[in-house]
Specification:
By secondary structure, this protein is mainly alpha-helical. It has 3 domains: 150 residues, no CATH class; 41 residues; 262 residues, MetI-like (MetI-like fold), CATH 1.10.3720.10. Helices cover 76% and strands 1% of the residues. It is built from 15 helices and 2 strands. It has a two-stranded antiparallel ribbon with strand order 1-2. Helix 7 packs antiparallel against helix 12. It is flat, with a radius of gyration of 31 Å. It starts with a helix and ends with a helix.
């Protein structure tokens, strides 16, 4: 069905464009009145009126065809299905829908096979009706648009107006998606907070959501910020110094080699970073922690182990996460430093400053707002990371200042709570939305601060 709608849309749009262009060329050949718009503009106008109805019908098909087919099938089910609860009936219809998509499927159960066959017939009818409506509306739009054509018709203005509406709808779709995400988070979080007090959630120190027993999320916040802190300890100096070298010291040839290599890090899948953390960094951190424990005991400073030296640790996850966000810091900082006016550097050199002094006392302070914005964006990226933490930091919800102990984060718990089979309206599942809302607010604040800092930077030099 999708292919048929696409083929119908392409065929009707092409035919509409040709019909509109030929109609416009007739005006040009008549020689009485010079057309207001070129033939292509008339063709695009007819194409637009031919294509838009098909797109609207296709969107309606995507959103409503499944529900319509199920509603028709539900109304035809025998009275024996009334004993099923709404959830059981929905599960049954899901199974029927999956079976109907399999060619020549037979389960051996007469009632189920009959229902599946009937559902396939309903879907076929819906597909035929949808295709007929799409073609009928498209032809109607085509004939309407063609009748509107005349030598004085402003086809180009109408086409440009249609393009503006399309761009507006794209922007509106992005905004509507964001609003929908926020609304769903807020709605489900309010349902959760109706059962669990807000302050118990934000300030509680015990987290055991899997059994719906304890929902103190403070250990998750602690683990998230601790791992992000270690990540920035790695990424901030390395990324900033790399940016300073590339923008101020590296030759054009060296820059053309090093900068793409650094940016390759941004394209590596996070699961690869997770394997690197689990197989290389975590064992190394544990070995160093064990060595430090033995050293402190041998010197008589401690009677027992000081560091936990767990196989997975917050420090290991933070180090690898820092490596992952180095390209964000280096690339953005490099662009900001290169945007500093050359006149500031020349003025520093004229005052007798060396290159290092000019960079340290003039260039970096001038680029500091942009550098801070780059660091904040990198922090928001680190806070939202999941795979590295799952594989290298562990899943224990605890508050421990020991960097070699295993911790968990907000994102890891969201994944853990929403995987597997559980009731959607249970406190366990709803707590994931509350965590998502907190994570959204945190990253939003970081992004707002970064945008404000960048705005100030631009106002300073533009």
């Amino acid at each position: 069905m999708d292919f048929l709608l696409l083929a119908a849309a392409v065929a009707l749009a092409s035919f509409g464009f040709i019909a509109g262009r030929l109609r416009a060329e007739q005006f040009s050949f008549s020689g009485d009145i010079h057309p207001n718009s070129r033939p292509n503009a008339h063709g695009y106008f007819v194409l637009m009126w031919s294509l838009v109805p098909v797109v609207l019908v296709a969107l309606g098909y995507v959103f409503f065809s499944e529900g319509t087919s199920r509603a028709i099938l539900r109304s035809e089910l025998p009275d024996g299905f009334s004993i099923l609860t709404p959830g059981e009936l929905t599960t049954y219809l899901d199974t029927v829908a999956r079976a109907a998509r399999m060619p020549d499927f037979l389960s051996g159960e007469r009632v189920f096979d009959t229902v599946t066959e009937r559902y396939g017939e309903i879907r076929g009818t819906v597909n035929i009706v949808t295709l007929a409506i799409a073609m009928g509306l498209s032809l109607a739009g085509m004939f309407f648009a063609r009748r509107c054509l005349s030598p004085a018709f402003r086809a180009r203005q109408h086409v440009e107006s249609g393009i503006e509406w399309f761009l507006f709808l794209c922007a509106a779709l992005a905004i509507a998606t964001t609003v929908g995400i926020v609304a769903s988070l807020v709605f489900e979080s309010l349902r959760f907070f109706a059962e669990v007090p807000v302050w118990d959630f934000l300030l509680g120190t015990r987290w055991n959501a899997q059994t719906s027993a304890e929902f103190g999320a403070l250990p998750l916040f602690f683990g998230t910020f601790m791992i992000s802190f270690f990540a920035m300890v790695v990424a901030a100096p390395v990324g900033l110094f790399a940016a300073i070298y590339l923008s101020e010291y590296a030759s054009r040839q060296v820059r053309s080699i090093i900068k793409p290599v650094l940016e390759v890090l941004a394209g590596i899948p996070t699961v690869v970073y997770g394997f690197f953390a689990l197989l290389v960094i975590a064992p190394a951190v544990r070995s160093i922690a064990l060595w430090i424990n033995q050293l402190l005991i041998a010197w008589g400073i401690a009677d027992g182990a000081v560091l936990a030296a767990q196989p997975t640790s917050a420090l290991a996850a933070g180090i690898v996460m820092g490596i992952m966000v180095i390209p964000f810091v280096s690339s953005l900082s490099d662009d900001v430093i290169r945007a500093v006016p050359q006149s500031l550097r020349d003025g520093a050199y004229a005052m007798g400053a060396t290159k290092a002094e000019a960079v340290r006392q003039v260039v970096v302070p001038a680029a500091l707002p942009g550098i801070i914005a780059a660091l904040l964006l990198a922090v928001s990226r680190a806070i939202g990371e999941t795979m590295i933490v799952v594989m290298a930091a562990g899943q224990r919800a605890q508050i421990s200042p020991d960097p070699t102990s295993d911790l968990t984060t907000i994102t890891v718990q969201i994944v853990s709570l929403l995987t597997g089979e559980s009731e959607f309206d249970s406190p366990k599942t709803l707590s994931a939305f509350a965590l998502g809302l907190v994570l959204f607010i945190i990253t939003l604040l970081f992004n707002l601060v970064a945008i404000n800092v960048v705005k100030r930077f631009r106002e300073k030099y533009e």
